[in-house]
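This part of the workshop introduces the protein records we will be handling. The question running through the whole workshop is how a given chain folds. To make this concrete, we reproduce a full record directly below:
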Amino acid sequence: MRTGNCTRNTKETKVKTIVNIDTYEASKISTGVGFFDHMLELFAFRAGIYLEVKAEGDLYVDDHHTVEDVGICLGKTLSESLGDKAGIARYGTAWIPMDEALVQVVLDISGRGMLVYNAELPSPTVGGFETELVEEFFRALAHNAGITLHINVTYGRNTHHIVEAIFKALGCAMAQAMAITSKEIPSTKGVL
């Protein structure tokens, strides 16, 4: 079983994440940020993984520390669960429509964390969630998971639809990339 976990305790947050890539069951997610919880549930469902997230943060300040620290912890958890990455497909691509919005996510589980984020979100908030935190979350996730992650919003008018499509597309692309397709490490270098 490919599993991982991370605990991160700072003066601003307490975060614990658990991932099981090879087993899907309903996720257990509680960050105190409702919209963010919903997006993480969508990601886990589309990735076909079990995800547990428990976060307590200084939400009286704002959601930034909680969202970023969940990204850090989830990235580390995904990296741990993939181990030496032997046998994985490595690459994943997904195009996801959500009503009027269309999003593309392309990724490489390369061991090199990088985010390219081409998304203009029409509204600064969705249900009280600050949409600038979407980029912060994905930057923290990509860096700590060692994933080269490209997010491209082709078009869309409804911010909720755009963000939802991004999280769903990430899940679908991760499912492809994490799939076991051989016994070899997917690199001519012999290591990722």
In short: The CA atoms of residues 39 and 52 lie 13 Å apart.
